[in-house]
Amino acid sequence: MSASIAKPMLFPSTIAGSLPKPAWLAEPNKLWAQWRSQGDELAQAKDDAILLAIKLQEDAGIDIVTDGEQARQHFVHGFLEAVEGIDFDKRVEMGIRDNRYKAMCPTVTGPLRLRSRVHAREARLARAHTTRKLKFTLPGPMTIVDTIADAHYGDRVKMAMAFAALLNEEARGLAADGVDVIQFDEPAFNVYMDEAADWGIAALHRAIEGVNTTSAVHICYGYGIAANIAWKETLGTEWRQYEKFFPTLAQSRIDMVSVECINSHVPMAMLELLGGKDVELGVIDVATDKIETAEEVADVIAKAANHVPKAKIVPGTNCGMAPMRREIAAKKLIALGKGAALARERIS
Q1: 107 CB contacts (<8 Å, ≥6 apart)?
Q2: Which helix (H) or strand (E) holds 133?
Q3: Cβ-count burial of 201 within 10 angstroms (0-12 exposed, 13-18 middle, 19+ buried)?
């Protein structure tokens, strides 16, 4: 008698990428948190925090885990710190995400190149300590360009392609390290919709060129911080920004698209515009401390299954959880794991 072939698990759960850092590693409850130590002590503390982040996800029943971005002060600048041609002493206050808020950004002053691998230590540590699928996140080229000052290239597209080439180097390395999913974070995509369709997706194609692993792009309405919450209140009762580039994204070589869904005003029917892509479905709200129930999570999954083949739904968080209180994030992870399991029971 032939052996039966196990079907892939329905609704494998994951997170957008980041988790809150322990208070002994960095200042809690904020972005751009300052490290508590330095040198070898800091490096070891980061390693310890990564192992804790993996354990937290595994205990909550998360199926595709991440390093929690524990070794990065910021999701963009954690990558930029390894890039030659950037002057971190020459910081400029910039309005980013179409002037939604301001940040002090370093300046590109010369040709860009990687000094070395960027995230090999984190990726290899994580790979060695989990048997589950491992996802690793990188900033997308368009979002990097929107988060840095330029005193060299003089052209956003040219600079984005230069960053895409560096991201490609790191992505190839991550694939070799055993990472299963490489996700590029592109919150800028729903701010500059025309540019996303015009050259943003092309830059992602450059970033994944020759990378033999699952590729994903995370598009959302931002962290649960005051500036983002206030901006979302101006967007009306239906958020239809994605209509401008989802059809183009559907034709792209990106495998998976991460979309904010729970408590958002993105019409579920809009997911149909992704035309067969895997959908990392935001079922956990990072802009509130309210803990979702398993039933609420399963309900969002069920609604999405009316528009996306169920085998292509990957439940996750709306965005990163870095600024949240750790105890709240931990409870939300449990809700995510239980909600995905409940959806498997209900939707066969």
Answers
A1: 86, 87, 90, 91, 92, 148, 149, 150, 151
A2: strand 133-139
A3: buried
pLDDT score, position 247: 94
Cα 248 to Cα 22, 34, 85, 141, 252, distances in angstroms? 40, 39, 32, 17, 7
What are residue 242's phi and psi, to 5 degrees?
-70, -20
When pLDDT is averaged across residues 141-145 and rounded to a whole number, the result is: 95
Which pTM value belongs to this model?
A: 0.93
CB count within 10 Å of CB 322 equals 29
Residue 13 falls inside a structural domain: no
3-state secondary structure of 197: helix
Task: Name the domain count of the chain.
Answer: 1
* Model pLDDT, residue 32: 79
* The pLDDT value given to residue 158: 98
Distance CA 213, CA 113 (A): 23
CATH of the domain at 188: 3.20.20.210
Among the listed residues 276, 274, 260, the one whose alpha carbon sits nearest the alpha carbon of residue 309:
276
